Amino acid sequence: MRNAFAQAAVAELATAYSAVLSDARRDGRADAARWIAATEAYIENLTTIARAADAGAEIRFLFGPEGPLRIIVGSDPARQFMLAAPRPHESGRLEQAVLKRFCQAAGCLNLRANGLGAEPRTNLETRVPLNAKRGGDGLSCALQGLRHGKLYRRACAQLIGELRALVAVLIGVANPIDWSGFGPPRRRGPSHLVPVDRLGNGVVADVPALYRSPQVLTDAIPWIQARLVGKVASFRLIPPASLVYGSQVVSR
Asked: What residues contact residue 96 under an 8 Å CB cut-off, 6+ apart?
């Protein structure tokens, strides 16, 4: 059952990233070469994971109170990825597609989450109400500047969602991240490329708010580093006024 779910997740993720890749190629921008290369590398990594799972590698699922499902395949080496769409607003659609594919392969009658053998993450903070913008992963938004609360909360939610989605993508990076060359995001095709070293290599992510708020990403590096090793660190972000009062908060 774990193998079937992992295979379904890999297949749908590959499909989603291939669609993004097709958009970038169709766009035909000369500066999209590295963006395309990063996407191709990620899809190839997913293919490698699928082969390992099909060969009988151990598969573990980790659920946390915040953020997407983490799937770990094998142990030496261990390869992992998170069930997160390349574009955050499509995450719900991706999850439904994975479940549909999984049910076609394994059946879903009376299926429960713990039927997959999911392992709860440990040492996570107690979940607090969403309206406080805090979660079990330590990420929150400083509650200030509430004179225009609706705009402020909208910018907070956008940044929080993008940071979590970015971590999901970074999980799949095969080589160690050179934090001295990490970020800020660059426009690449229809999305963004977040550098992970000083050579300009990067990961594909749909992060329009972080693109407009590079200092938030820089400040979030300790939090990102902690999340990549399964730990919790506290980070209270403050969205810049340019994002809070921008007319296109969720645009690219």
From this structure: none
Q: What is the pTM of this model?
A: 0.54
Structure token digits, residue 129: 């109400």
Write the CB contacts of 59 (distance below 8 Å, at least 6 apart in sequence).
2, 3, 6, 53, 71, 72, 73
pLDDT along the chain (252 residues), means of 10: 84 89 74 76 86 86 66 80 80 82 67 41 27 62 67 87 86 82 82 85 86 93 89 88 68 44
The amino acid at residue 213 is: S
Q: What is the dihedral angle through the alpha carbons of 239, 241, 243, 246, rounded to the nearest 10 degrees?
A: 160
**End-to-end Cα spacing for the chain:** 38
Q: If DSSP states are collapsed to H, E and C, what string results for 133-199?
A: CECCCCEEECCCCHHHHHHHHHHHHHHHHHHHHHHHHHCCCCCCCCHHHECCCEEECCEEEEEECCC
77: tokens are 């080496």
Q: Decide if 105 contacts 205 (C-beta within 8 A).
A: no
Q: What DSSP designation does 28 have?
A: T
Q: What is the CA radius of gyration of the chain?
A: 18
